[in-house]
Amino acid sequence: MKLYAPWEKAFNRISTPFEHFLHAQTTTGLVLMVMTVLALILANTPLTEAYVHFFHTKVDLSVGSWQIEHTIHHWINDGLMAIFFFIIGLEIKREILVGELSNIKVAILPILSAIGGMVLPALIYLSINYGSEGAVGWGIPMATDIAFAISALVLLGNRVSPALVTFLVALAIVDDLGAVLVIAIFYTNQINMLPLGLAGLSFLIMVIFNRVGIHMILPYFIVGLFMWFFMLESGVHATIAGVIAALSIPSKPRQTPIDFTMSARNQLDEFDNYPVATDHMMHERQKAILLNMKDRIDSIGSPAARLEHDLHLPVALIVIPLFALANAGISIDFSSIGETIITPVSLGIIAGLILGKVLGIFGVAWVAIKLGIAKLPENSTMSQIFGVAFLGGIGFTMSIFVADLAFLGDDTLIFQAKVGILAASLFAGLFGYIWLRVVSKS
Q1: Counting C-beta atoms within 10 Å of the first and last residue's C-beta, which end of the chain has fewer, N or C?
Q2: Model confidence at 382, in pLDDT bands (50, 70, 90)?
Q3: 349-358 in b/e burial notation, b at 16+ Cβ within 10 A?
Q4: Distance between CA atoms of 223 and 240, rounded to whole angstroms?
Q5: 376 phi/psi in degrees, rounded to 5
Q6: Among residues 176, 186, 192, 182, which one has the least CA distance to residue 232?
Q7: What domains can you pick out in the chain, each with its CATH number?
């Protein structure tokens, strides 16, 4: 008898794109947890010096007199994370076109809740840090880590309704969009207009590719690489190029489902007309038909859908774990951890991610439902929305990312921010999971 882990049983029977997305996020959350623990161990053992030295090793790319030189830490945060933001862009586009955000009646609750869950944490953080050097970090507690939050909810299995999972996914997608806008608008120190204009031109070329019907991925990849470089040189964070590039990728297939069905039926009929060769081997013509059908199957899927499906696993198993390993490792002096947590930056983040997220998500959802603006997700309760609001307080990946941008060059404030993020995310995740487990019935 084959044994399955809880998340494996939950996904053993499903295969829709949305459910593949959930499975990928669950995998990301579990791997992320392991790598975070490993980073903390490396940063608090005799291996600390080797750990820090490795991620500060410089790697350069040069062609003739042209050269880019960055540390491994920088390449991960500016380079690999652009792929993560590309996935976010594809997810946002999918949700708006055909997902939960395409139906305003369904989308209104997660949209309003997400806005509340971004505004309230920022205001609470600012109220604690107003007038101090840490005030610039107001964007840190706005973010929700979609992988960790969804992992916690999915591991509850049939204790929560699919509609509640969908609510959290839609909320997290809107939250990601808000975080991207905050990074692009407020955490850009100096803009160089020429590279920014070239980045815009690159995007325009990709849009033209889309409009003329180019479905090959290679042209988009080449131009997108140039756009990433120009964005890096412009002063706007290079990862934004990932989101913008995703918007240009075609979401419509070359062939309509009806045309594909008719073609497939005709080819299957032709396939059956050939007699089976010796030893049950296929006729050469049958092999050609199968290859042609494979090409047609590829054509019925859009480039955006294929990329989202193909990139989820590499991002889940390589990009995000490397980001966690490079950024979550903080050397903790447990004798002074209490003093660190009560610093304005740490306290503001903890209050924002816990109190702010709960007041923003649950509070706005409660008001919207009471006023009749939105409806409660099917087979869900307000108590479950309360638990989901706590899961929204798991900031981690995006919060750490914003902290590095907000406090660039100030190691002390970055340390305080990371302590606050880890403490708040751990409490929010555990409390949200336990709460939902208690109030939800199988």
Answers
A1: N
A2: very high
A3: bbbbbbbbbb
A4: 15
A5: -65, 140
A6: 192
A7: 17-62+83-187+237-252+302-439 (1.20.1530.10), 261-297 (no CATH)
